[in-house]
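dumping the sequnces here before i forget
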Amino acid sequence: MLCGMAEKKSDRTRASILAAARERFGADGYERATIRAIAADASIDPAMVMRYYGSKEKLFAAAAEFDVRLPDLRDVPREQAGEVLVRHLVERWEEDDTLRVLLRTAVTNEAAAERMRQVFIGQLTPAFERAAMDEPAVRAGLIATQALGFALCRYILAFEPIVGLSTDDAVAWLGPTITRYLTSPVPSVP
Amino acid sequence: MLCGMAEKKSDRTRASILAAARERFGADGYERATIRAIAADASIDPAMVMRYYGSKEKLFAAAAEFDVRLPDLRDVPREQAGEVLVRHLVERWEEDDTLRVLLRTAVTNEAAAERMRQVFIGQLTPAFERAAMDEPAVRAGLIATQALGFALCRYILAFEPIVGLSTDDAVAWLGPTITRYLTSPVPSVP
DNA sequence: GAGGAAAGTCAACAAGTGTTGGCATATGCT
DNA sequence: AGCATATGCCAACACTTGTTGACTTTCCTC
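..and the predicted 3d for all of it:
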């Protein structure tokens, strides 16, 4: 078999290591997710993990690679922007566990926290800037508080009333909040 | 010195251990906060920590002892309830680092997560029940998402736009959200 | 002051961590 | 075939962790 092909053997194990890493990091956090456990999940020797990714930190960096893939908010009217954004975020959260990895680890790992800042401030702020909003950074931050708080309570802390919400329920509750953070004039504090 | 007095020597070191533990747990999370580091902060031998608290888990349990001390919401009109609650929570957060300890650790430590559930669902829900609200658990959960998300972004992840908010700013922005979660009729999802 | 408990120190253990180098195996090319 | 390279496993390392037991010092009571 001539190996210009994409399907090399090593690529498969590389990928299975990454999958196992994501699961473990997401379930246990950075410190408690051990290389040995990840290797066991991938049915492989711990040394292989080092061979392929160099170190635990680099493996984590690979596992936490992420892009929010924001929808273009200029297409939707301001009053629906909140609901569109919430639905996008919740669905994104549900389909991809990378965000859960990031959330679990960002609390104790500075590199993960930095990436979180990049994603939620660094990607949201310019998007709002393009939509010609005032105070785009503050609005991005506020939306991050509600979105991350929801994810924290739903996926990490498992608050029953929040876990029990359907996607539609969540959108119906959170949508207006996000809309207000997007559209409300900056409150003047006396 | 007759030792019926309250000021025994051991009580002081006990307290200094607890203070150091709170700081370390709050700054580093459960796993990275080592007994040795806590002991060093308290200028004491690691063995003393075990002598006084038995184990790391018990020390953590002592350090995470906490009560929200909710204000009585029956006194305030519904329209201001959100602002009152937010102001109370933010101030509580600012004055006492126990909540930060809890937040940092709850993400990886199941015992801390359980306590978080007790505090935010177990204490908030019955308070709303007493105030004769419908769906008290869901409302408690939603308020928890916004409150915890705010704390996460402000104290743990250090999102600059959120760190920069004054207490009054925070109340002005979050107050209406909490009020809506308290008062809005349950959205009907088709 | 003598006796005894309380408070603190020291060194060590057993277990688990990330990480490394050497050695076997298999795989693909000529 | 035979060689070279990629892939994988094993055993060990250096280190840190929570935890323990024996020893010394300090302090209070008699």
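Confidence is low (pLDDT under 50) at residues 1-6 of chain A.
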